[in-house]
Amino acid sequence: MHGIIRRYEGIDQARIDELTKKVGESYLPRVSKLDGFRGYYLIETNDGVMSSISFFDTMAQADESTRLSATWVRDEKLDTVIPNPPKVTGGEVILNKVVEKELVHA
User: Fold this and answer.
1) pLDDT at position 103, please?
2) Long-range contacts of range 95-102, CB-CB < 8 Å, 24 or more positions apart?
3) Cα(10)–Cα(105) distance, rounded to whole angstroms?
4) H-helix or E-strand containing 22?
5) Residues in the chain with pLDDT < 50?
6) Are 40 and 20 in contact (CB under 8 A)?
7) Residue 25's beta-bridge partner residues?
8) How far is 19 from 64, CA to CA, in rounded Å?
9) Residue 57's pLDDT is what?
10) What share of the chain is helix, strand, coil (3-state, %, to 5)?
């Protein structure tokens, strides 16, 4: 399994709820249809930074999710909400443990 982390800085904090809703309604359905999709998490740090972590079977599939993400931001016209390109890092997951509970945004 491979993971990709995208760190977005300079997020418009007044539009976090709007962004989170759009991710859930339009990005997540798209990314979850990619071959090899294993999981997705979105993390807010309350200081204009959000990070996403995605898991795929191969690194090529994980890289495809980054291309999809960039296209989605452009298509949804979110450049004022997400003004900076993400810092992206990824690699092979070498250790993991998962508890089978789904986190639901409240």
Assistant:
1) 65
2) 96/1
3) 22
4) helix 16-22
5) none
6) no
7) none
8) 21
9) 97
10) 35, 30, 40
How far is residue 5 CA from its own chain's centroid? 7
**Count of Cβ atoms closer than 10 Å to residue 49 Cβ:** 14
CATH classification of 2-92, choosing from 3.40.50.2020, 3.30.70.100, 3.40.50.1100, 3.40.50.720? 3.30.70.100
Structure-token pair, residue 81: 């909400």
3-state secondary structure of 75: helix
Helices (H), 1-106: 16-22, 28-31, 59-75
pTM: 0.86
Residue with tokens 């900076």: 84
CA angle 77, 23, 20 (to 5 degrees): 100
- The answer to whether 4 and 53 are in contact (CB under 8 A) is yes
Task: Please tell me the distance from the alpha carbon of residue 71 to that of residue 16, in angstroms, as a whole number.
Answer: 19
User: Using an 8 Å Cβ cutoff, are 81 and 44 in contact?
Assistant: no
